[in-house]
Each structure stands twice: as C-alpha cells, then as structure tokens.
Amino acid sequence: MVDWKTIVLDESHAEEFVYIITLNRPDAMNSLNTLMAEELIECVTMLKEKDDVRALIITGSGTRCFCPGADLKERKTMDNVQWKRQHDIFEDAYELIRTFPYPVIAAVNGYALGGGMEMILSCDLRYVAEHAKMGLPEAKLGIIPGVGGTQLLPRSVPVAIAKELLFTGKQLDAQKALEIGLANDVFSMEELLEKTIETAKTIAKNAPLSLQSIKKAVDTGLQTDINTALSIELDQYYKCAFSEDRLEGVYAFNEKRDPVWTGK
User: Fold this and answer.
1) What is the pTM of this model?
2) Could you tell me which residues are beta bridge partners of residue 126?
3) What's the CATH fold of domain 208-254?
4) Whether pLDDT at 1 is above 80
C-alpha cells in the first residue's frame, strides 16, 4: 500500500469491487493543496488500471469538512505562473475523477465549498450528511470556479438555480441540495458512509462493461443532440450485447445463480 500524505485509500471492500478515497488533511479541514492533487492523480490513475474496481467512493476525514476548496494559505504568495502551474495539476486531478470509467460516488461529510463543491460535482452520485453545506463562493474572492463549477452545476440542477448559486456564492444545506436534485440522498453522519458503501456494493454487483457503457452513454450523450446521443447509446448497447458478459448474464438468469462477470 502506498503511504499517501494527504489521502487514504481504503481497500477493505476490494473483494466486492469497491474502493474508498478519503481526503485526509484534518489540520487544514481537508483543503486541496498541490500535494493532495498530485496524490489524487497518482491514486485514481492506479485504480483506473486495476481489474477489481467497479465503484469508487470519495469522502473526507472527520465530520466537519469534505473539502472547503483550495488551500488559500498555500496560494497566498503565489505569482501568476505558480498559480497557473498549480491549477493545471488541479485540472488533471478533476478530469481523472470525471472520466473514471466506473461510477464515482461522493460521501459528503461536511462543508464542500469551491473546489470541494466542484469535486462532488465531478462525481456521478452524491450522498450528503445532514449537517453538510455546499457552495461556490469564488465570486467573493474575485475569481470564478475553474475546475468545472460553471459547467457541471447547470448540468445537475436547473440553470437559473445554478446561476443564482454562482452569482450569490451562497451555501446550500443538505435538504435544499436534495430538493433541487444536487444530492441523491441525505443521511445522518453516523449512517453516511455505511449507506454510501451499501449503494456502491449494489452497483458493483452489476456487469462491469454495462457500468462503463452506461456512464459513457449518459456523459457523452448529454453533450450533444438527441439523435447523436441515441447513436452513442446504440454503440454502447452493442458493445455489451455482443460481449461474453451478456452471455453469462443470460445463462446465470436461466440457471438461477449469480453471474460471474469477466468484463469481456
């Protein structure tokens, strides 16, 4: 196991194809610094190459913060070149999360602000603790979201609501996030990770090619017109329909047993 300095990789559920990354800078409220972004890149890249991953959970250590965004203490003395260099690393980390081939689930254990909010927006599903708060306050700092906030938020909630949150920089509580469709569900802090793992394991029981194809069809199709999107879906459908796993799924159903997926 790699000795990460700012994240923890939990492999205890690997037999059920679920891995958990915990953002782990408790002394800095899990804020995102350059090292954390670099370690996320290394870790997610490693998981992407593994054969026993079908669902990935991202959460934060403690009960106060998921991630409040970038570490402004680290950024305090940066010149423009240093700022851009760091942001390039952030972009790479978030792109890896967005394009991870299997479902990525955020277990939001507290404040998710700025880059923290953009991280949960980069995930496919979001389960939120009752006390969590979310928001994009960048306009209050003289910048705008730069790793997906202005694009991912209006793809997750109605455009006018997304613009209101971006323009005002105000925070959402967990119940409001659920009401507008930003959160999939809300749990007590005590239940949050347990319920998230439960969902991840349910997902991970399904065919790996199906999970990959669903994610690709939805994410790619949303970026285009309906006819092109339906063509994308059909391409992914036949990728699964002509696979060994499709045969295994039919055999297992008829033989009344659990399927043994190979990802082929």
Assistant:
1) 0.95
2) 106
3) Lyase 2-enoyl-coa Hydratase; Chain  A, domain 2 (1.10.12)
4) no
Q: d(Cα 222, Cα 201) in Å, to the nearest integer?
A: 26
Determine which one of 11, 118, 130, 190 is catalytic.
118
Place of tokens 């609501």: 161
Q: From the CA atom positions of the chain, what is the Rg in Å?
A: 19
d(CA 121, CA 132) in angstroms, rounded, equals 15
DSSP, collapsed to helix, strand or coil, labels residue 164 as helix
Residue 76 reports pLDDT greater than 90? no
Angle at 211 between CA 126 and CA 125, to 5 degrees: 5
| Cα 64 from Cα 113, distance rounded (Å) | 12
What is the per-residue pLDDT across 216-229, written as a single tens digit (0 to 9) for each? 999 999 999 999 99
pLDDT (tens digit per residue) in 101-143: 999 999 999 999 999 999 999 999 999 999 999 999 999 999 9
State the average pLDDT over residues 73-100.
94
The one catalytic residue in 15, 130, 138, 194 is 138
Q: Catalytic annotation on 95? A: no
Active site (annotated) includes residue 244? no
Query: Which residue shows structure tokens 């350059």?
Result: 34
Place 72 in a pLDDT band, splitting at 50, 70 and 90: confident
For residue 49 the two structure tokens come to 């190459």
Q: Which residues contact 237 (CB under 8 A, 6 or more apart)?
A: 213
Alpha carbons 158 and 164: distance in angstroms, whole number: 10
Three-state SS letters, 70-127? ECHHHHCCCCHHHHHHHHHHHHHHHHHHHCCCCCEEEEECCEEECHHHHHHHCCCEEE
CATH architecture of 7-204: Alpha-Beta Complex (3.90)
Domain ranges of the chain: 7-204, 208-254
